[in-house]
Write a structure and sequence with these properties.
Rossmann fold; alpha/beta
């Protein structure tokens, strides 16, 4: 694909009032499609800048999540910030806002205020737990939603670190929300192009998590008659001191119809020198795995039966007897889906990843060269790529203020009273 092609969002102006990962990831994706994303940071900077910083106000975490954006710094607690906010809303076509509901009105970044300034604005309001309900005003992070949604129950493991489960990393609900929010913005832009109308979008970590948990939630509902019995069984396991992993395994065996397949055909196996993954979810693929390994199929489909468990153990022993490379070659020859089990530093140099440009190397002026994920899709007629590094703190404050129409003397006054921070005015 030629890098001279325009992106589908070239020229679309987006202002991002958000920190951390979820909505900044949305901004990252939209920037990859060509949007001009202006990130509004507080005087202390986005919190991600302070996670294991490499230099002053620069960290790998921030660099990974925010490539291709511009950065301005606005102190929303200052009275004069309202003029800046209003100018940004008038300039923008999309606003990405991630604040607790009480703070939206407090800082003048709520939908009602924004649409009074710009009726065609698309205003995405992101919260932790959704806009309604008893806990709507509560802030939160991915780990809280892993617990509340039930998704954590299916994904978390105790990992030998005591009986409590450990959160799943990376933050699947944060980054999942980035995709959900991007999808919603694109739909709203389509509506605006057809009608001229702006609108409010609501996203939340909890909404994303419930969507990701759909298959498990549906299977649980089908077996609702046994919920009480299952609760009693789990309570007994807890009383007996069973680990979280043991409780979760019991839950899976009782609730998920395909639990047996997951234990045998759709899983990771330890080899003599590492791990590999196999993924067969049809009778034909089951047969190919048994042919490749020489292990007979289990005589029963009951995953709790001793005979089934004996087959699982035999399969694990067989995989442990040879190297990963040997098994992957044999499984490929047999036509059974399989692949390496990479650590992150191995994944970024995987030949399949590189061949499809799923990672990109960037050269940050302060951090230096680093590799990060590229756009997860490509378009034949339109440019979709990570175009630049993350912005330096406040590097574009003056530039953006001029673009939104603030007079030069007003900009100078706002910098002087520290409503705005321009990168050139702060101490290094």
């Amino acid at each position: 694909m030629s890098t001279t092609q325009p992106g589908v969002l070239d020229g679309v102006r987006i202002v991002e009032f958000a920190q951390n990962a979820a909505i900044p990831h949305c901004g990252r994706l939209l920037a990859g499609l060509g949007a001009d994303v202006v990130k509004v940071e507080p005087p202390a900077g986005d919190a991600m800048r302070m996670i294991a910083p490499v230099t002053d106000r620069e960290s790998m975490a921030f660099a990974m999540i925010n490539p291709g954006k511009r950065s301005i710094v606005v102190d929303l607690t200052k009275p004069n910030s309202h003029a800046v906010i209003d100018a940004l809303f008038a300039w923008a076509e999309v606003a990405l806002v991630a604040f607790k509901p009480p703070d939206l009105v407090r800082y003048g970044i709520d939908w009602d205020h924004a649409r009074a300034i710009n009726p065609s604005l698309i205003h995405l309001t992101h919260t932790s737990l959704g806009p309604d309900g008893p806990d709507a005003d509560q802030g939160g992070y991915d780990v809280l939603v892993q617990g509340r949604s039930g998704l954590g129950w299916m994904m978390n493991r105790s990992g030998g670190m005591g009986k409590a489960p450990q959160p799943t990393r990376p933050a699947v609900n944060d980054f999942g929300t980035g995709f959900v929010a991007s999808f919603a913005v694109m739909a709203a832009l389509r509506h605006r192009d057809q009608t001229g109308e702006g609108q409010r979008i609501d996203t939340s970590l909890l909404g994303t998590a419930m969507s990701l948990a759909t298959p498990t939630s549906v299977s649980f509902e089908r077996q609702a008659d046994s919920i009480g019995e299952l609760d009693e069984e789990l309570a007994a396991l807890r009383l007996a001191g069973s680990s979280f992993d043991d409780q979760r395994t019991h839950y899976e065996q009782r609730v998920i119809p395909a639990a047996g397949a997951f234990r045998l055909y759709f899983r990771h196996y330890q080899t003599s020198d590492g791990l590999i993954s196999v993924a067969g979810m049809s009778p034909g693929l089951f047969a190919k795995l048994h042919k490749a390994t020489g292990i007979d199929p289990p005589p029963t489909k009951d995953a709790n039966a001793p005979e089934f468990q004996a087959t699982v153990q035999a399969m694990e022993d067989r995989f442990a007897s040879r190297t990963s490379a040997e098994w992957l070659a044999d499984l490929k020859l047999a036509g059974d889906p399989s692949g390496p089990y990479n650590m992150p530093h191995e994944a970024v140099v995987d030949l399949q990843v590189i061949a499809n440009d799923y990672v990109v190397e960037l050269n940050h002026p302060d951090i230096g060269r680093y590799v990060t994920s590229s756009m997860p899709f490509q378009m034949e007629k339109s440019r979709a790529e990570v175009r630049d590094t993350s912005p330096k703190f406040g590097a574009h404050t003056r530039q953006v203020m001029e673009e939104v129409g603030l007079p030069t003397d007003t900009i100078a006054m706002l910098i002087d009273d520290e409503t705005l921070i321009d990168e050139s005015t702060r101490e290094s």
